[in-house]
Amino acid sequence: MLAIGFGIGGAIAATPGIASADSSFDWLSTVDSFLTGGAFPAATTPELNLAISFDGMSLFQDGSAHAYTGTDGNIAIANGAGATAYAFGANNYAAVDGTGSTAIAGAYSDAGAGGSADNTAFVFGDHSFAYAGTTDAANPGSFNYAVIFGNDNGAWAGGNAAGSGSYDGAYVEGNNLGTANAQGADYLADILKFYGDGPSSSTAAAADSTNLLSTTDPSGALADGQAFWADLFSGDTSGALAAGTNFWTDLFSGADASGALADTSNLWTDLVAAFDGGGAAADLSNFWTDLAGLF
User: Fold this and answer.
1) What is the CA radius of gyration of the chain?
2) H helices present in the chain, as ranges
3) Which of 8, 114, 204, 266 is most deeply buried (CB count within 10 A of its CB)?
4) Which domain does 247 fall in, by range?
5) Rounded Cα gap, residues 172 and 123, in angstroms
6) How many CB atoms lie within 10 A of CB 294?
7) Residue that terminates a domain, selected from 133, 165, 193
């Protein structure tokens, strides 16, 4: 190609009637350089840090990310420089998306997992560590979750030297919040969030209405676990609302504690009375008549 360019240049210079001028810009050389590709640097491909392992087999590995699995339906995925994922036991899932982070589901190995199964460890962030399963093969853990969204955090859920642990959850959302720990028993939860820590529990939480209501009124009527409406209306500790004997009675007495509304002899009568102060509209026995009586 370069020879063709020079040939064209020589032909132009030798053509009669065309003057050959000395110029500092050689456009033919520029064309030759463009056509030969010499003006463009070699393309560079960024390093891919990704590893995928399933059922004891490495499906893909490139860069500094690594994934390891046992042979009983385990899946591990690591994405990021220095990221590592382990899934051992049965049907465990570990995934990492971040630099220098680690996720372990079940354990580091089949021997360490014991009978641990169906655990999930997930990290989305840098330099964080999530472990769901067990750290003691003698105390396996199953159906545990260790989940992190953020940098420089830890989350542990499942069994440990203190005992086996299943159905535990450790969750962290934010950066530099520390470690959420739910290990050594069943049905534990520990939650850390950047706008305030969630509830932590070292024992199984009771799921009854008494505990739910008592959280807002630990010393009052809400804590007694009695009828729902009685507890709800106990905000009016000195009035008829706290009686809890009848929903409509309690509801209307809030607006008219001493008047006709509280007699609850008839829903429509009471409702109309709210707009007619106990007058003529309230003494009617038919809904449509009462409704028309308002106007």
Assistant:
1) 38
2) 2-14, 27-36, 110-113, 209-214, 228-233, 247-253, 267-276, 287-293
3) 114
4) 209-293
5) 10
6) 11
7) 193
Which positions ≥6 away from 279 have C-beta within 8 Å?
Answer: 273
Q: Which of 23, 35, 29, 34 is nearest to 8 (CA)?
A: 29
What is the per-residue pLDDT for 32?
Answer: 64
Residue 65 has a CB neighbour count (10 Å cut-off) of: 23
CA atoms within 13 A on the CB side of 228: 4
Quick one: which of 201, 237, 196, 207 has its CA closest to 219? 237
d(CA 170, CA 159): 12
43 falls within a domain? no
Alpha-carbon torsion 73, 74, 80, 81, what sign? negative
**Residue, of 190 and 15, whose pLDDT is higher:** 190
Distance (Å, whole) CA 147 – CA 74: 17
Q: Structure tokens of 226?
A: 């009695």
Q: What share of the chain is helix, strand, coil (3-state, %, to 5)?
A: 25, 25, 45
**Kind of pairing between the strands at 102-106 and 189-193:** unpaired
> Tokens for 36?
């030969």
Q: In residues, how long is the chain? A: 295
pLDDT digits 0-9 by tens, 218-240: 444 444 444 444 444 455 444 44
Query: Do 75 and 183 share a domain, yes or no?
Result: yes
E strands along 29-91, which residues? 50-54, 57-62, 66-69, 75-79, 84-87
Give, for 85, the enclosing helix (H) or strand (E).
strand 84-87
Mean pLDDT on 241-255: 50
Convert the pLDDT of each residue in 43-64 to its tens digit: 666 789 999 999 999 999 999 9
User: What is residue 279's DSSP assignment?
Assistant: S
Distance CA 88, CA 68 (A): 8
- The answer to whether residue 198 is domain-embedded is no
Count how many Cα atoms sit within 13 Å of the Cα of residue 97 in the half-sphere of its side chain.
Answer: 6
